[in-house]
Amino acid sequence: MTSTRSSRVGLAAAVAGVLAGAAWWGSGRAQPRTWDLVAPASLTLQVGQVATLEVAVPPGPGRTWAREPFRLDVVEDDAAGPGLDFKRRRWERGHAVDPDASAPRFAISLRAAALGSHEVELALLAWSCQARTCKPVRTSRTVRVEVVAPPSPDAAPAPPDAAPMPPDAPARRPRTRAR
Q: Are residues 51 and 45 in contact, defined by beta-carbon separation less than 8 angstroms?
């Protein structure tokens, strides 16, 4: 009877150990994402205008980014046709505004070439590290760039206090003083 009892106790201890190990192992994998790709949701530009798209990549509390590989790809959705010109489409950590910063920032220069609504995908591939362990990170974010026509140079701007005329109103004549 004692051998059966001791084998049951041993089996129960083994099962408890396996469950505790599984809970410990799974807790490391179920951690929430602590990093993000910070960029504006949209930009509005005029045709021919050059602008800078600011992108920051904070690693999260207690984490750092591995030096290599660290790559940020800029991909334009060609559904509306190529309407944006980029000086560079692949950015590495050395291209950051401050490459040695814990949260690299990128100043992506672009020029609006054609009218329309364009989507730019920012795709990040990097390694997020904590203590002596690093994990691969792949994420992306979409920025909508609206390219509009520049204002007509002929049109004089209306004075700020001018009210819009109703469409059925007769044309006004200027007032004159009687002498």
A: yes
